[in-house]
Amino acid sequence: MTVLLIAIGAALGAPLRYLTDRAMQARHDSPFPWGTLTVNVLGSLLLGAVAAIPAGPTVTALVGTGFCGALTTWSTLSYETLRLTREGARFHALANVLASVVAGLGAASLGYALARALNG
Amino acid sequence: MARPPEFRVDPDVDLHVPADRAELTAHPAAVLGAIAAGGVLGALSRAGIQTAFPHPPTGFPWATFGINLAGCLLIGVLMAVIGARPTGPLVRPFLGVGVLGGFTTFSAYVVDIQRAVAAGAASAALAYLAATLVGALLAVWAGDAAATRLLVRTGREVR
């Protein structure tokens, strides 16, 4: 059952990362990879919220391990940073990785606090 | 910034690359299906490893650390291969966006840091934060460098 829940979550999360990335790039033609930052921050916000509530194994597998895990990514983030360095955009490379970590941590804390507040 | 029109930054999808731009309208079901299938495989592999090597809230999340570094190494290898020789149109969506994107996780990374801080293990959290950050960047560089060198040596590089 857990395997199925993780699979469903991941089958939604991974394509949503791709589609969000496309939508962000179509809207803003920027040298900065906003799409990946967006999914990583949103996934961190949601997982932070899941961590705050007494989530059962169903929600943890479906939303946490499956959906948030597949929506967010380190492989894309690291490759983008490498490529930005390669094209000489060192500031963007550094900003990408630092903004991801700072915004991700902030989003996880915000998600945690919001879920705590809403959950009483 | 003087970026060549086809210089890829984003391995998931980069609209500066004409093939990426066209792939979703050309075969949407195949692309999204490949990403979803790859994502399921990657996520299940990650969950299996995390279950096999659990960690206490105050401990170092070795499983997720290893998963993220391995995924970064492999995306470096994969993208070097894709850039050097012709591959099928679903190779990047399946292996890169799906399997490796689903295998690695950023949300568990930050939430584990937050949990460790909340549990009073700030130094473990900081060590994990820095080790993953530095390790991921070294891993992607190493994967790219090793694969590129191997592709050149075997003379299979097309460009």
UniProtKB/TrEMBL annotation, chain A:
* Domain of life, source organism: Bacteria
Q: Name one GO cellular component term.
A: plasma membrane
Q: Which organism is it from?
A: Micromonospora globispora
* GO-annotated molecular function: fluoride channel activity; metal ion binding
Enumerate the catalysed reactions: fluoride(in) = fluoride(out)
Report whether Membrane shows up as a keyword of the record.
yes
Question: Per its database record, what is this protein's job?
Answer: Fluoride-specific ion channel. Important for reducing fluoride concentration in the cell, thus reducing its toxicity.
The residues that hold Na(+) are G69, T72
Q: What is this protein called?
A: Fluoride-specific ion channel FluC
Q: From which residue to which does the signal peptide run?
A: none
* Pfam families from the UniProt entry: CRCB
Query: How does the protein associate with the membrane?
Result: Multi-pass membrane protein
